[in-house]
Design brief:
Layout lengths: L10 E6 L3 H12 L4 E7 L2 H10 L4 E5 L1 E2 L2 E2 H11 L4 E6 L6 H6 L4 E4 L4 H12 L4 E2 L11 H11 L4 H8 L3 H15 L4 H10 L5
Parallel strand pairs: 1-2, 1-3, 3-6, 6-7, 7-8
Antiparallel strand pairs: 4-5
Length: 204
Amino acid sequence: MTEQGMPEGGVSVLVVDDHDVVHWGFRLLLDRQSWVDRCDAASDAAAAIAAVRRSPPDIALVDLFLGGGSGAELCREIRVLSPTTRVLLISGAGSISAAVARAAGASGFVSKDLAARDVINAVRMVAIGVEVFGSEPGPSTGLSTREEEVMALIGAGSTNAEIAERLFLSPHTVKDHTSSIYRKLGVRNRAEAVKQAQRLGLLS
């Protein structure tokens, strides 16, 4: 490849998504690119880890939400197994802040709502070493002031009911804030949220 930063002989890509139609679509699109040498697929984290151990890809295109798992956590595992693999997180539901994506070791995040050519271009940019964040929230985690307050109380072990009473909010509003926090931090539950918040310095 003549493009600076592009692996010699073409780019190998691993698509990690739990929907077969997504596998088919991305593999069809990527196989048509002259700079792609090989495109494999995995439907869950275990299959992805096995694929990386078998043949580390240059790029891993990882869905942010994999069934009951976290794409951000899988990103960390991939990067430990293969530090040279660059991970591009992608999602059709929700987003992740650039700060959290970078903390997980990802080189970018894009939405599945983007045009196919834009997603493919994001893969190409990551392949040559350029970070790509389709909806860059800025240098912070993307949490609002209220969400940071809720996160602090979650970290202190407060229940939703206790948070609602402390912040003079309805339980429904607290639930909405909590869901938003999970989405922005790229986690699935309270334990993961606390761990991620501590990693990012939001909690001591």
